[in-house]
Amino acid sequence: MTTSPSVPAADRLPPARLALDRWTWREIAHLLADLPMAIAGFVYALLVITVGVGLSVTVIGLPVLVGGLRGARWLGRVERGRARSLLGVRIEEPSPLPRGRGDEDEGVFTWLWSGLKDPVGWRSLLYAFIRLPWGVLTFAVTLVSLIVLWPVLPFIARGLTTADRAMVRGLLSPSDELERRIAKLESGRGVVVDTAAADLRRIERDLHDGAQARLVALAMGLGLAKEKLTHDPEAAARMVEEAHGEVKVALQELRDLARGIHPAVLTDRGLDAALSAIASRCTVPVTVSVDLPGRPAEAIEGIAYFTVSELLQNVSKHSGARSASVEVRRAADRLLIQVTDDGSGGARMDGGTGMAGLAERLGAVDGLFVLDSPVGGPTSVTAELPWRDRIRAESRAS
Question: Which domain does 288 fall in, by range?
């Protein structure tokens, strides 16, 4: 949130006095700038509405209208900045529009649809359209007051800018928390889809380069052993023995692959047993503490499992730690995960260890990810996920 650093808490400005202090001069500057800004905004809004709506029956009408609404967003950002710097209004920036992904056609339609239903753009356009009469009034009153009513100018300026503040908050601030949450979830949905697609590509690559290639070689070896069985049984026996070893390796690769998709121990016994299994494979001694009143929804449980799994892989590969710990517990309606190690620290979100990807995945499901890793250690990663009860989730699914 961007705020004016010199504004008192909760937008409480100093009371207007019979003196032209710095806040009065800021308010006067804002009021005098209202007219040129209002003229520019009104002309822009009129052009967007007449041209965009007028051409909406043609193929170029909707793109023109969407472009105009996005331009109105920029005008709204300018007005919010002006209100912050001159009027001391504490106001957040609305969430950006989600960007289209996928093929070109999907991107065009996503761009059009997200632009047409953008409430921020429409409210900014409405603000620009209705400001002209108010801009004329405030400019005229302020100019006259500077000449003949200057003793009471601070009170006039405060009264006029109070209305300005109300208009900025009413039309240019984010409408409510729901709007921000929707934009965040739309962005998070893209992260989830991208992550799922990457996981599918990884599974396909592992199957093709690992188990599949090994099974093809195994089939060829057994075919050769079959041919040698009658005239060279000793060679055939050696080839069968080698094939038996290849079967064991292929089975282990398939188990590892299945564990990477969704481990059976997690499904059967829950997070405590599954995280203990991960810890046993870590190159660093890991203490696991799981204190949960029950099992969360399957999706939340899976995300928690793979989050800890990736964090412990980072501990093994990058930390240089001698010990680590994993703590999982429930606090109100949140599932809390904390992974710590006594390594050298210095981990960063952009350090190539996958931390940024984890943060994006957790954010996509309304989770949080906090990294604390000073140089020299220790490193502590705290993750939060929304708690959803498994029984309720299953009843809804049924």
Answer: 264-397
Supply the pTM of this predicted model: 0.46
pLDDT for 10 beyond 50: no
pLDDT of residue 3: 36
Banded pLDDT at 4 (limits 50, 70, 90): very low
Among residues of the chain, what percentage have pLDDT more than 90? 15
Do residues 255 and 269 both lie within one domain? no
Cβ-contact 305, 337 below 8 angstroms: no
Based on the fold, state whether residues 234 and 273 are members of the same structural domain. Answer: no
Best CA proximity match to 243, nearest among 270, 222, 271, 266: 222
Q: Return the CA Rg of the chain.
A: 32
List all residues 6 or more positions away from 319 whose beta carbon is below 8 Å from its beta carbon: 284, 341, 343, 344, 347, 377, 379
Q: Number of structural domains, the chain?
A: 3
Nearest to 159 by CA among 267, 271, 28, 65: 28
379-386 sheet: strands from edge to edge: 286-291, 324-331, 334-341, 379-386, 368-372
- What's the start-to-end Cα distance of the chain, in Å? 42
Q: Please identify, among 229, 261, 293, the residue that sits at the C-terminal boundary of a domain.
A: 261
Pair 71, 210 in one domain: no
pLDDT digits (tens, 9 = 90+) for 282-304: 888 999 999 988 888 887 888 88
Rounded CA separation 360/191 (Å): 7
Tell whether 100 and 42 lie within a shared domain: yes
- The C-alpha atoms of residue 219 and residue 309 are separated, in whole angstroms, by 34
Q: Any idea what the CATH number is for the domain that residue 382 is in? A: 3.30.565.10
Structure tokens at 288: 């696991």
CA-to-CA distance for 61 and 156, rounded, in angstroms? 44
Q: How far apart are CA 222 and CA 113, in angstroms?
A: 58
Residue 98 in contact with residue 186, Cβ under 8 Å? yes
| Residue 162: C-alpha distances to residues 12, 23, 35, 340 (Å) | 11, 13, 17, 51
Let me know if residue 183 belongs to a domain: no
**Same-domain check for residues 115 and 164:** yes
